[in-house]
Amino acid sequence: MAGPLSGIKIVDLTSVVMGPYATQIFGDMGADVIKVESPEGDIMRHMGVGRSKAMGPIHLSVNRNKKSLMLDLRLPAAREALLRVVAGADVFVHSMRPAAIERLGLDYESVRQANPSIVYCGAYGFGKGGPYAEDPAYDDMIQGVSGLCAVNAQLAGEPRFTPTIIGDKVAGLTIAYSILGALFHKYRTGEGQSIEVPMFESLTSFMLIEHMWERSFDPEHGAAGYPRVLSQLRKPHRTKDGYLCVLPYTDKNWLDFFQLAERPDLAADPRYTTANNRSRNYETLYKTLGDILTERTSQEWISQLKPLSIPVAPVNSLEDLFSDPHLVSVGMFFPQTHPSEGVLTQIRPPVTFEKTPNEIRSLAPRLGEHSQEILAAAGLSDSEITALAEAGATRCER
Length: 398
Prior knowledge:
With 398 residues, the chain is an alpha/beta fold. It folds into two domains: 9-206 and 329-395, Rossmann fold; 237-314, formyl-coa transferase, domain 3 (2-Layer Sandwich), CATH 3.30.1540. 40% of the residues lie in helices and 14% in strands. The protein contains 18 helices and twelve strands. The chain has helices at residues 18-28, 57-62, 76-86, 98-103, 108-114, 139-145, 148-156, 166-189, 199-211, 227-230, 251-260, 264-267, 275-279, 282-293, 298-305, 325-329, 371-377, 382-390; strands at residues 9-13, 32-37, 66-71, 91-94, 119-124, 193-198, 237-238, 243-246, 312-314, 333-338, 342-347, 394-395. The strands form three sheets. It has a seven-stranded mixed sheet with strand order 6-5-4-1-2-3-12, with helices on both faces. Strands 7-8-9 form a three-stranded antiparallel sheet, with helices on one face. It starts with 8 loop residues before the first strand and ends with a strand. 35% of the residues are buried.
């Protein structure tokens, strides 16, 4: 069965992770994604040790279900060829700074001339209306300006980056749902439109869902920052033989936990009997939780807490994920053979569609692997494609 986006064509001028993550989601859902790359290729091709040149592990992780079209867009002939491809597309998405995309002649107004109904998405570091608009932006910068490094300082004693590229990935998800919304409008009305997805604003919005806290009120009557998640005692707790994540959450959870721990004094303590009272006493509550958990082994706690529906989970390492019994049971990881890279471990899309399932139809492409095919489908003749290749405007891998 075809995926939910089968028949949608996306021209993708993004690189690194933010944009490619979004467009891979579209590819998994059946869209025809054309990855447009410079002669050097996406920089992620060159990060890490691969089995062959320009096929690094992160490139393999975010570029499956795509075709690679190599174009040197500094050359007018390459730009004209791209616009012929765009003429048959539904979506155009890029991750260049505003001035850079304008210099290439691929701003919204220029692209709309080639395709009036195009959904055009500019994925930027910072929104075009602000003073940072032309600043370079990578995940590290965005973690810093969004407040994420600062809240980590409350736990680590100094500002720290979160050890995952969360800014890139949050923005990637924001790109995905924004384009889907615009496509829904297009198929309802026939209208395309321009979308702006900035990393800074995306991660700031994400951060402040809980951390607006008492700044939600105008005038504010307290500071930003959700105390529960900023507590140094909110952490995996030591047991007799390891660590566990344990989070009694509801009133009943806490009552059951204190009874299981044989602490009727805590069950009756007014500081802990209601959610509102607990929200004002997280420091003492989490210290008490940690002290109690040291009294039994991890397995004892798991076997006793799960029947009471008290949330509990082990602390998996990255390597543990590949043998986690739940992930194994749902088939999260599976081998697939790449034409040039051999057997690769793939992560299945996490979402399940009953009628229109996701599908991994192809693995990450080699640079320029589909240039000939894509340009021919856009109506360029063999002689035109040959002329582009001879001018260095494209490269057609075989």
